[in-house]
Structures are given as structure tokens and as C-alpha cells.
Amino acid sequence: MEKIKVEIDPIREYPDGLPFNDMCFESWIVGKLRAAGIPVIGVLLFRGLKKGTLTRTNDYETNNMVYTWTNP
């Protein structure tokens, strides 16, 4: 089983100067997931995956978003 875990701190990592709206935030997340090797479909909007399953949870101790991709 292939597994990739990406932990994102949206407060500290979000780029300065990038407007904080739904479109920019989602585009930024898609780029982070793709850079980690997750086969995301979409460029500006998340349109799905080429394969596997993606889940998102929140780490309440760090306030980070945790994305986990698995491919059986």
C-alpha cells in the first residue's frame, strides 16, 4: 500500500500577499498536495484524484490540516 501524508499549517505557511479567499486557498492546497506527490486532478480547483483515496483531518494540538492519501 502506498501512503503519503501532508501536514499543512495554514496560518504560518500561507503565502504573504496572496489574497485569502476560497479560490486562492484551494489553489494553494492543490499545489501543496501535488508537490508532495499526490495525484490531484485540477489546477485551480480540486477536481478529484487520478487514483487512491484522500482524507483530511485536523490536528487540534497544532491547528494543522492533515491530508492522507492512500493507494491500495
Tell me what you see in this structure.
By secondary structure, this protein is of the alpha+beta class. The chain is built from 2 helices and 5 strands; from the N terminus they run E-H-H-E-E-E-E. The mean pLDDT is 94. It has a 3-stranded antiparallel beta sheet with strand order 1-5-4. Strands 2-3 form a two-stranded antiparallel ribbon. The termini are close together.
Brief account:
The chain has two helices and five strands; from the N terminus they run E-H-H-E-E-E-E. The protein is an alpha+beta fold. The strands form two sheets. It has a three-stranded antiparallel sheet with strand order 1-5-4. A two-stranded antiparallel ribbon has the order 2-3.
Helices, strands, pairings?
Layout: E1 2-8, H1 10-13, H2 22-35, E2 40-41, E3 48-49, E4 53-59, E5 64-71
Antiparallel strand pairs: 1-5, 2-3, 4-5
Structural class: alpha+beta
Q: State which percent range the strand residues make up.
A: 35-45%
Number of helix segments? 2
Widest sheet, order of strands: 1-5-4
Largest sheet: 3 strands, antiparallel
H/E element sequence:
EHHEEEE
- Approximately how much helix is present in the residues? 25-40%
User: Which descriptor suits the 3D outline?
Assistant: globular
DSSP E strands, number:
5
**Residue-averaged pLDDT, rounded?**
94
Radius of gyration: 12 Å
Give the termini distance in whole angstroms: 5 Å
Regions with pLDDT < 50 over 5+ consecutive residues? none
